[in-house]
Structure formats: structure tokens, C-alpha cells
């Protein structure tokens, strides 16, 4: 009887504990949607591993060693390219921990590396496996965690992109089962009821199962009223006018703002639509330029002087009259309450139409900003039509540009603060000295940001402190940032070698959502706010350049074949922006488990669960785990490939294809095919195709670049890409 009683207690305790496991998974699932956490399934596997170890109730030191080994194994697979516990591995671990501990003590949280944050997150999972065992199995107090889980899912479903519909259903089912079992076990314990009826005990659980099943069924089938307040986020954002706007704090909300005097820091993504544009082609939308760099950001060197533009005819000469142009029209419609007090316009704007009554437009020649006014007061135009002359710049003319700059222009647009560190000037000269012409120097600076360990990132972006220069900090310290960092740095580097350049802000083209005939309809959101660079060429005028990783220059460039001196045609503007995403972040070491707070298991408790392990049992177990671990590590590319294949099959989207392509690059590197630093993705793909006698790598790379630069992939193409990827993987792995 006692043996049966113990078995029943263990069974119920195990079921209850794994109900806690499934509830905890509901805390992990949203991370892939609300954060930049990649490979979430690896954290889920470690969670399962820790919960199983805790459920077995091994001796505390055995559980500690096993969980610690699992933690190191995962970190090594994610972040290390050297053998575990080798001399180089230990050295990297030491460097990593010293750096991150210093960042912790100095409260510079944004400097914490991804590896160290993963380490802390795995420690949290380790701790939760112990705490949930204590709450669910020993104390049987589970209501608080159930309530917190419901609140957590509700908040994420309301205020983030995460869809918690199915999560709520799963939590409801698991919670009712857990509450029922916990209450049953409490009653049995308090009333000292014996388990002689253990074989009949499933009958006692039938009412619980029936209630949960019927409740869930009714919840699915019952008619549901539409929500009175479907999405409170836009209302809250609009009510909190300036909260999270572009201020001096480290975290801002992405979008257009007028104050650029202090740049830096992270920002929160915001996909709220700002305006819709009907236009024949994709192009950037200018708003204004800034000409004076302060060391911290951008300001205008003089007060704005707006001049009336009669009848909406805009007198703005961004480029010279010898630039080829084509007359185009565009329609801009701002969302309600999302108007900007300056007009957005394409390059070559010549006319603003759709003005009513006393409305008129004014131009500031210094900043190229255009305002609309009604009866002398600045007003926001909700809808207006533009006529513009779309330019196409002749590349040979840019390459051969040698006419001297006007003194006034040179002095104005090569301004730099006296506090600019000398090493910034030295770097500019180092980048451009091998090149002779202006255009080649400009392109060399633009290309510089496509490699050299620079990374496009919008989170954990540091803010220069004290007297630290914004550009110097980006170029030599962090190398992490977004468009403001890249564009400002390019302008400063060009000015350092006396090439006139200025900083431009506005919006990218946005997302194509429709169109008819020769007109395309684009949705432009706050997330499309952007900054880029304009460089002055005496014979041409101001020419846009794009240094930011992941963005391509949407301006048109052409070659005049008749006037070309030879048949060696120049490359296009998009040749330099390769910008691969580095999701694997090598070089970031991580290490051992610090505290022994997570393993206080009473290994000789709970009735019939007295595991009397001798030392050689433990040795055999550790040896088996080591062997299994080595086997998993050796075959990691195979199971990672299978996991990605399943993911692509279940959800074919652009994000899963990007992950699959990055995995393909890592797999090729593992098999000895490393991409050279000066080699483009296309050249590398051609090399792979030649070796395997196929064209699949080239096709995949072409689609990858199209996705990276233009975000153009449809469902049929994703189906084709999945098959190409699988075929190439089979060739590589045999």
C-alpha cells in the first residue's frame, strides 16, 4: 500500500510540476515577437532540461553540475568558435566577464553584450525551474503564478504585436488542470486520505477533465462581441503627446523630430502610418538639411528665412540644369493627427498644388525646408499634389568632377568643431588616400561602413558621455548605431578631407501597398524616418549617398555610353551595400555558472523517492551526459538544419528565410568555404555554385539581396526559396 501511495504522490506531483513548465513556456513564446531574441527554441530546450533535472530531485550538487553544463553547452554553441575549455576559450571568457561586470558596476546597461545577456537569461530559467518546483510541488501555491501569467499575456497582447489568443486558451486549460490537481493533493494531505484507491483515482479526475474540456469548447464555439476598444495603443500614444519623443534621454520613439542637437541612444519602433504617397516609383522623401555639426548633433548655422513661393512654384535648385530629369507627379495624404509642419517632397520638386484659399508655401533656402501657411500662420497640409523633375545622375561626370569649389560653399559645408578628435581626420585620410578622384573618395567612405565590424542596431545604442564626440564614439568605440550614426559619420569624414557634404533627414519610400496604372501607393510610417548624406559636385550639384547598412540609394544613376571614354562601365550606386546581418555574433565569449542559488533540492525527501546514488552512478551519468553532449555538438548543424526546415515549412516568411540564409553561410564556413572580407556576396555565391556545379547559391543570394534592400518577396517566391535552400543543404551535407 505504501508503495502505491508513493507512486500516486509522485505521479500527481510530476503532472503538477509540468503544468508549471507549460505555464512558464507562455512567458517565453512572446520573446521572439517583442524582442530581438533569436533561436528561442534553444532557450525552450534548456528550460525543459532544467525542469526535468528538478523533477528527478537529484542531489543538489548533481543538479547544479548538470544545469551548469547545459548552460555552458548552449552558450558555447551560440557564441564560441573555439573548442570548449581550451586556452583561447578561457581567455575569451575572462575578457567577456571582466568587461560586462565593469559595465554592471558602472550602470552602463546598454554595453552588456548579447552573450552576457543570454547568460543572465539562462540563469533566470535555471532559477525558475527551482522556484516553480518549490511553489507547485512543495507548497502547492500556484494561484499567484497563474494570475501573473494571465496578466502578462494580457498586457503583451494589448500593447505589443504579440497575438495572445491561443496563449490565453492554453493557459486557461493548463491552469485549471493545475489548480484542480493542487487542490486534490491538498485535500488528500489535510484529510490524511490513503491511496488505497490509487487504481480508481483517475475516476476522481474525470469531473476536472470534463469541466476543462467543456469550458474550452464553449469558449471556442460561443459568439463573441466585437471589442469596444479594439486597440488602445494608438490612443495612448496620441494622448501621451511628447512621451518618448526625440528628447535627450537614452530611449526615444522613432519618427521625425526637429531637434537634432543631441543624437544617440536607442529608440522604440513605431509603425504608426504618417502619410500615404501615390508616386510612379520609389524614392526618398526630403524634409530638411542641417549644416553645422556640433560634436553632439546637428543644428542650422543661421536662423530660418522663409520666402514666399508664388503660386506654389518652388525655387529650389538641388542639382544643376545639365542633370537629366523626367517630369513626374505625386500625391501625398497625411493621416489624421499625424501631419508634420513641413512638407515632405522628392528630389527635383518644382510645384505644390492643391492649396486652398489663403494657403501658401514658403521655402527656407538654407535648410531646404518648405512650410505651408494660412493667413501668415504655419499650418499642416493634410493632402497636396507635387510636380517634380526626377533626376538621373551621370556617373562618368561624377567620376571626372575636378572643377574647384567656390570658397563660400567650401567654408560653409566643410565646417567641423574644434573639439573633433584628430584620429577622425586621420581615419578619413587613411580611407581616401588610395583614391584620386572626388567620387572615388566619396564612394570609399560610403563603402567603409559596409564592413569593418559596423553593425546596424536600434537597441542598446550608447549615448556619448561628457565631452565625447558623437562621431568619434561611433567610429572607434561602439561601431553600433542606426542611420543617424552612419550618415553623420560619413558627412564628418568627408568634411575632414575638404569635400562639401551635408546631413539630410526625411523618410524612406515606405511599404508598397497597392497602385494602379503607372502609379504605386506607398504607406510611410514613423519607422521609415531616416537620415542620409548629400555631397556637392560643382558640375552636378547635391548628390545623395547612402552609408547606412541595410539601406540602398534609391536615386537613379546612369552612364552616357556615347560620351564614355571606354567600354569599362562604372558600377552602380548599389554595388557597395552588402551589409550582411550578423545574428550569430561570434567573438562574444561567455562562461561558467556563478552562484549556487538554484539547486537547493532536498534529494532524500518525498516519501518513496529516496535516490541513493553512489559515486560511480554519478560518474556513469556524467560520462553519458558528456558523450551525449559531444554527440549533439558534433551534429549541431544537422539538427539546427532540421529545426530550420520545420520552421520554414510551418511559417514561410521573410524572417525565416533570412535565418535560413545566415545558417547556410555558417554551414559553408563549417565545411571550409569562408567568405573573404573583400568578397561580395555575389562573388562568394558564384564560387560556391562553381564548386557544386549548380546555380542555387546564386539564386538564393539574389533573393536575399532583394529582400535586404527592397523588401520584395512574395509567397510563391518563398516556396521556391525553401526548395532551393533544401537542395543546396543536401549537396553540402552529402
What is the mean predicted local confidence, pLDDT? Answer: 79
Number of strands: 21
Q: Compute the gyration radius: what is it?
A: 31 Å
Q: Strand share of the residues?
A: 15-25%
Helix content: 40-55%
Cα distance spanning the termini: 57 Å
The number of distinct helices, counting runs of at least 4 residues, comes to 22
Which structural class is indicated by helix and strand composition? alpha+beta
> Which segments are poorly predicted (pLDDT under 50) over 5 or more consecutive residues?
237-250, 565-617
**Quick one: biggest sheet?**
7 strands, mixed
Question: How many structural domains in the coordinates?
Answer: 4
Any idea what the shape is?
Answer: globular
Keywords: Membrane, Transmembrane, Transmembrane helix
Pfam families: DUF4129, TgpA_N, Transglut_core
Biased composition (Acidic residues): 587-605
Transmembrane segments: 9-28, 40-62, 69-89, 109-130, 142-162, 168-184, 204-222, 615-633
Written account of the structure:
Helix 1 packs antiparallel against helix 8 (165-190). Strand 10 (359-364) and strand 11 (369-374) form a beta hairpin. The strands form 6 sheets. Strands 3, 8, 9, 13, 17, 18 and 21 form a 7-stranded mixed beta sheet that branches. Strands 4-16-19-20 form a 4-stranded antiparallel beta sheet, with helices on one face. Strands 7-10-11-12 form a 4-stranded antiparallel beta sheet, with no helix packed on it. It is α+β, with helices and mostly antiparallel strands and 734 residues long. The protein folds into 4 domains: 2-224, no CATH class; 256-262 and 272-391, no CATH class; 397-505 and 528-557, C8orf32 fold, CATH 3.10.620; 636-733, no CATH class. The model is unreliable at 237-250 and 565-617 (pLDDT under 50). Helix content is 46%, strand content 15%. Keywords: Membrane, Transmembrane, Transmembrane helix.
Amino acid at each position: 500500500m505504501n508503495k502505491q501511495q508513493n507512486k500516486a504522490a509522485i505521479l500527481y506531483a510530476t503532472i503538477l510540476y509540468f503544468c508549471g513548465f507549460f505555464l512558464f513556456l507562455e512567458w517565453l513564446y512572446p520573446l521572439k515577437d517583442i524582442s530581438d531574441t533569436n533561436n528561442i527554441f534553444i532557450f525552450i530546450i534548456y528550460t525543459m532540461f532544467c525542469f526535468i533535472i528538478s523533477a528527478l530531485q537529484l542531489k543538489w550538487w548533481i543538479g547544479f553540475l548538470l544545469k551548469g553544463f547545459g548552460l555552458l553547452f548552449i552558450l558555447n554553441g551560440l557564441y564560441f568558435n573555439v573548442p570548449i575549455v581550451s586556452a583561447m576559450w578561457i581567455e575569451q571568457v575572462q575578457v567577456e566577464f571582466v568587461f560586462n561586470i565593469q559595465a554592471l558596476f558602472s550602470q552602463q546597461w546598454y554595453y552588456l553584450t548579447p552573450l552576457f545577456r543570454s547568460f543572465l537569461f539562462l540563469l533566470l530559467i535555471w532559477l525558475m525551474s527551482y522556484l516553480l518546483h518549490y511553489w507547485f510541488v512543495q507548497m502547492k501555491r500556484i494561484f499567484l503564478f497563474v494570475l501573473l501569467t494571465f496578466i502578462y499575456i494580457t498586457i503583451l497582447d494589448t500593447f505589443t504585436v504579440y497575438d495572445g489568443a491561443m496563449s490565453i486558451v492554453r493557459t486557461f486549460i493548463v491552469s485549471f488542470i493545475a489548480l484542480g490537481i493542487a487542490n486534490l493533493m491538498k485535500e488528500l494531505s489535510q484529510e490524511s486520505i490513503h491511496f488505497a484507491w490509487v487504481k480508481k483515482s483517475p475516476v476522481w479526475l474525470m469531473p476536472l477533465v470534463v469541466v476543462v474540456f467543456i469550458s474550452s469548447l464553449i469558449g471556442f464555439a460561443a459568439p463573441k462581441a466585437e471589442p469596444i476598444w479594439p486597440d488602445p495603443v494608438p490612443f495612448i500614444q496620441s494622448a501621451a503627446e511628447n512621451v518618448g519623443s526625440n528628447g535627450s534621454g537614452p530611449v526615444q520613439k522613432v519618427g521625425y523630430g526637429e531637434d537634432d542637437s543631441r543624437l544617440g541612444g536607442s529608440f522604440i519602433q513605431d509603425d504608426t502610418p504618417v502619410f500615404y504617397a501615390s508616386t510612379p516609383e520609389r524614392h526618398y522623401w526630403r524634409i530638411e538639411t542641417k549644416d553645422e555639426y556640433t560634436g553632439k548633433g546637428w543644428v542650422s548655422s543661421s536662423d530660418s528665412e522663409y520666402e514666399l513661393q508664388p503660386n506654389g512654384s518652388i525655387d529650389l535648385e538641388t542639382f544643376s540644369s545639365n542633370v537629366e530629369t523626367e517630369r513626374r507627379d505625386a500625391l501625398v495624404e497625411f493621416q489624421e493627427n499625424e501631419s508634420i509642419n513641413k512638407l515632405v517632397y522628392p528630389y527635383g520638386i518644382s510645384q505644390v498644388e492643391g492649396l486652398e484659399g489663403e494657403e501658401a508655401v514658403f521655402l527656407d533656402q538654407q535648410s531646404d525646408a518648405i512650410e505651408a501657411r494660412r493667413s501668415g500662420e504655419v499650418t499642416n497640409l493634410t493632402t497636396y499634389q507635387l510636380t517634380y523633375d526626377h533626376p538621373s545622375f551621370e556617373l562618368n561626370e561624377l567620376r571626372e568632377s575636378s572643377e574647384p569649389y567656390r570658397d563660400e560653399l567650401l567654408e560653409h559645408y566643410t565646417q567641423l568643431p574644434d573639439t573633433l578628435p584628430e584620429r577622425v581626420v586621420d581615419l578619413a585620410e587613411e580611407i581616401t588616400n588610395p583614391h584620386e578622384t572626388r567620387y572615388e573618395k566619396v564612394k570609399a567612405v560610403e563603402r567603409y561602413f559596409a564592413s569593418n565590424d559596423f553593425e546596424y542596431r536600434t537597441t542598446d545604442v550608447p549615448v556619448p558621455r561628457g565631452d565625447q564626440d558623437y562621431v568619434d564614439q561611433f567610429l572607434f568605440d561602439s561601431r553600433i548605431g542606426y542611420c543617424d550614426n552612419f550618415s553623420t559619420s560619413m558627412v564628418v569624414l568627408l568634411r575632414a578631407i575638404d569635400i562639401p557634404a551635408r546631413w539630410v533627414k526625411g523618410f524612406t519610400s515606405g511599404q508598397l501597398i497597392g497602385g494602379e496604372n503607372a502609379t504605386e501607393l506607398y504607406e510611410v510610417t514613423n519607422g521609415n524616418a531616416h537620415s542620409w548624406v548629400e555631397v556637392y559636385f560643382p558640375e552636378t550639384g547635391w548628390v545623395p549617398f547612402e552609408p547606412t547598412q541595410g539601406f540602398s540609394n534609391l536615386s537613379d544613376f546612369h552612364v552616357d555610353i556615347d560620351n564614355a571614354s571606354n567600354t569599362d562601365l562604372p558600377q552602380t550606386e548599389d554595388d557597395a551595400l552588402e551589409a550582411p546581418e550578423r545574428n550569430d555574433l561570434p567573438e562574444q565569449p561567455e562562461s561558467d555558472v556563478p552562484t549556487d542559488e538554484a539547486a537547493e533540492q532536498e534529494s532524500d525527501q518525498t516519501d518513496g523517492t529516496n535516490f541513493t546514488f553512489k559515486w560511480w552512478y554519478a560518474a556513469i551519468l556524467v560520462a553519458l551526459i558528456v558523450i551525449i553532449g559531444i554527440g549533439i555538438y558534433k551534429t549541431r548543424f544537422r539538427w539546427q538544419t532540421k529545426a530550420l526546415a520545420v520552421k520554414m515549412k510551418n511559417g514561410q516568411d521573410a524572417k525565416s528565410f533570412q535565418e535560413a540564409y545566415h545558417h547556410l553561410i555558417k554551414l559553408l564556413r563549417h565545411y571550409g568555404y569562408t567568405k573573404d572580407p573583400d568578397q561580395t556576396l555575389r562573388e562568394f555565391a558564384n564560387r560556391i555554385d562553381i564548386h557544386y556545379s549548380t546555380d542555387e547559391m546564386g539564386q538564393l543570394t539574389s533573393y536575399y539581396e532583394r529582400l535586404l534592400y527592397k523588401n520584395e518577396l512574395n509567397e510563391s517566391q518563398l516556396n521556391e526559396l525553401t526548395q532551393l535552400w533544401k537542395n543546396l543543404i543536401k549537396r553540402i551535407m552529402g
